[in-house]
Design a protein that fits this description.
- The complex is a heterodimer of chains A (149) and B (226).
- Chain A has a single domain, classed as Phosphoribosylformylglycinamidine synthase subunit PurS (Mth169, Chain: A), CATH 3.30.1280.10.
- Chain A is built from 4 helices and 3 strands; from the N terminus they run βαβαβαα.
- Chain B has a 9-stranded mixed β-sheet with strand order 2-1-3-4-11-10-9-6-7, with helices on both faces. Chain B has a two-stranded antiparallel sheet with strand order 5-8.
- The chains are: A alpha+beta (149), B alpha/beta (226).
- Chains A and B meet through helix 1 of A and loops of B.
């Protein structure tokens, strides 16, 4: 089981009223010099190995339903699943998959800027890995509770 | 025999009953269609009504566009059946790629509900033949995501081919590109607009009766065809 993340953002030329509202609220709260664009993040738990074919399928899913490519761009990347994130070796392997996903993802977004953002996201991902151990248990509990409910 | 006009009800549709009532008041035979059905019950035309189908989850119209009934609507529209999308119905038609472009949140960031002045830009569609080009009309407008957007090429094509059929006048209420309130497909049988013709068919409940011409237009078309 692997986690594939699809990030969807409004195209730069499309007005983002939600981001504008958040930008205004941040300024009012004293967080100066922050301009926000608001998008969506989808986390897909994908069964089996994440092959190139599987990623291509995710991209098709993103193009078909998750994003409206008239007004939005999307970016697909692989993230280590919470359960397998405990060991460093796993995390490294997943990182390698990440960069693979970026290469192939580039043709979709066609934006190098997005790629740069991804690199930043990987750094955050490393932090996530260490935190993931702690979170994993409570996440499982939450799932069980949800199923019971 | 009066023409049979289908009105699709999705989970979260709001104005389906108003559309049914408007069809009846204007002399047609309304047929209620269910989103989960894959049969159009032999109707002559279809209206996708306003509302918040599927709670506007993901994007307005994004999930409804894949409802079973839509496969039939798309097939019939491609074959020339008149299809009218009102408000959420317009959003669904764009998501289904029966019409180009998309509708995004109003630039004013609030839900707009008002009597909206419009200019008729084209009477060359199945749903607007009873208007005259340049006519000024007023219809109820009520939406949170009515800003029409499309890329430059698409906008140019719409303008060049006379497919912008209604434009907002006396102020653009939502940031729509080119003040666009409604458009049609190449053939003119598929029309989408944000304002609500079905709320403007009698004196008691609407500011005008300008919505009636939509129904008389399609009735004329269907009668002539028979």
């Amino acid at each position: 089981m692997a986690r594939v993340v699809v990030d969807v953002m409004p195209k730069p030329e499309i007005l983002d009223p939600q981001g504008k509202a958040v930008t205004g609220a941040l300024a009012r709260l004293g967080f100066a010099g922050m301009s926000v664009r608001q998008g969506k993040r989808f986390e897909l738990e994908v069964e089996g190995e994440v092959t190139e074919e599987r990623l291509a399928e995710v991209r098709r899913a993103a193009e078909t339903l998750l994003a409206n490519t008239v007004i939005e761009t999307f970016d697909v990347r692989v993230e280590p699943a919470p359960a397998s994130a405990a060991e460093d070796t796993d995390a490294e392997v997943s990182d390698a998959e990440d960069s693979g996903a970026e290469d192939s993802g580039a043709e979709d977004s066609g934006a190098e800027d997005n790629g740069a953002e991804d690199n930043g996201a990987e750094d955050n991902g490393a932090e996530d890995n260490t935190a993931a151990e702690n979170v994993a248990e409570s996440a499982e509990e939450a799932e069980l509770t949800a199923q019971a409910g | 025999m009066s023409p049979k006009i289908g009105v699709v009800t999705f989970p979260g549709s709001l104005d389906d009953q108003d559309a049914v009532r408007a069809i009846r008041l204007c002399g047609g035979e309304p047929v209620s269609l269910w989103h989960g059905s894959d049969d159009l019950d032999g109707v002559d035309a279809v209206i996708l009504p306003g509302g918040f189908s599927y709670g506007d989850y993901l994007r307005c119209g994004a999930i409804s566009r894949f409802a079973p009934v839509m496969a039939e609507v798309i097939k019939s529209a491609d074959a020339g059946m008149p299809v009218l999308g009102i408000c959420n119905g317009f959003q669904i038609l764009c998501e289904a790629h029966l019409l180009p472009g998309a509708l995004i949140r109003n630039d004013v960031r609030v839900f707009v509900c008002k009597d909206q002045d419009l200019q008729v830009e084209s009477a060359d569609t199945t749903w607007t033949s009873d208007f005259t080009r340049g006519q000024m009309i007023t219809l109820v407008l009520k939406n949170g995501e009515g800003g029409y957007v499309a890329d430059e090429d698409t906008l140019r094509r719409l303008e060049d081919e006379g497919r912008v059929i209604f434009r907002y006048v006396n102020g653009n209420p939502n940031g729509s590109f080119h003040d666009i309130a409604g458009i049609c497909n190449e053939r003119g049988n598929v029309v989408g607009l944000m304002p609500h013709p079905e709320h403007n068919v009698d004196r008691l409940t609407g500011p005008t009766q300008d919505g009636r011409a939509f129904f008389s237009s399609v009735f004329d078309f269907l009668t002539a065809k028979v």
